[in-house]
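Inverse folding, one chain.
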């Protein structure tokens, strides 16, 4: 392959795009592991455990992006999601390189975890000392580990309880794992957390029914979701949301004629899965 710096800009861009497409395809062979990882994540969150992401450098940025989406998108308690990024989360554009070798920090972070928690360790090479140290320390406490790496049969994947290998082609800029490797990692992480949200009942008809509507845009989205699912006018959806403190799932049932306390009881009995709650409610309780 011709180096991108020897190509015309349009050809260089095409080469970059092709490399990203190839990286995305690499995830296709990892679907069984991704499904298992999503089930582990959903079970952990459902049972009150914490999901802890551990990674360094570009992998850490992929982890950070995924973790920070969980509370807003799926209403996950922020206290249940933690990020252990080697050297800490950067506050400027500098990424400390030496910290990925700091195993003491990783072991201390694992010591703060509890049985019932879940560790997601990410490393392009599968040999990053920080990720390996945290994996070993977590497993010593009986904590399950999901390992994501771009190098098959690497140390991280050998150790992990759930191993997700996403082997990507050589980078167009050698050693810059934010490109192909990072793309594959981000896709895998997005798929794990999205399926976990589905398994938790936080997605209904492709809509985020457990979102945290903490701004004008999201409150409007919540009103649209309730109106669509309950098939009621916008003002009825808004009233139902106001009655439930803008909690979307019970608001759907309130819009259908339930009192807020009954809506929450039905949801609890249905495992917080709105589809099951809607099937459980009897026609006579619906608003005429």
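Residues assigned per position:
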């Amino acid at each position: 392959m011709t180096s991108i710096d020897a190509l015309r800009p349009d050809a260089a861009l095409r080469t970059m795009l092709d490399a990203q497409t190839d990286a995305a395809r690499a995830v296709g062979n990892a679907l069984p592991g991704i499904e298992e990882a999503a089930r582990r994540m959903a079970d952990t969150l459902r049972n009150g455990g914490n999901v802890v992401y551990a990674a360094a450098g570009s992998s850490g940025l992929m982890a950070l992006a995924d973790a920070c989406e969980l509370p807003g998108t799926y209403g996950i308690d922020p206290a249940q999601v933690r990020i252990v990024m080697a050297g800490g989360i950067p506050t400027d554009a500098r990424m400390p390189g030496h910290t990925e070798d700091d195993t003491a920090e990783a072991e201390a972070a694992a010591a703060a975890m509890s049985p019932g928690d879940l560790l997601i360790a990410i490393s392009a090479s599968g040999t990053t000392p920080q990720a390996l140290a945290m994996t070993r320390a977590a497993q010593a406490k009986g904590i399950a580990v999901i390992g994501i790496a771009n190098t098959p049969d690497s140390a991280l994947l050998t150790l992990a309880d759930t191993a997700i290998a996403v082997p990507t082609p050589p980078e167009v800029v050698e050693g810059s794992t934010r490109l192909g490797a990072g793309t594959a990692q981000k896709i895998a992480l997005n798929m794990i957390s999205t399926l976990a949200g589905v398994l938790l009942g936080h997605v209904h008809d492709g809509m985020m029914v457990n979102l945290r509507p903490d701004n004008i845009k999201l409150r409007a989205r919540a009103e649209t979701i309730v109106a669509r699912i309950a098939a009621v006018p916008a003002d009825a959806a808004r009233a139902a949301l106001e009655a439930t403190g803008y909690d979307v799932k019970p608001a759907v049932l309130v819009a259908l004629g339930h009192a807020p306390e009954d809506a929450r009881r039905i949801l609890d009995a249905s495992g917080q899965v709105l589809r099951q709650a809607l099937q459980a409610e009897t026609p006579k309780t619906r608003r005429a």
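Residues 283-288 have pLDDT under 50 and may be disordered. The radius of gyration is 22 Å.
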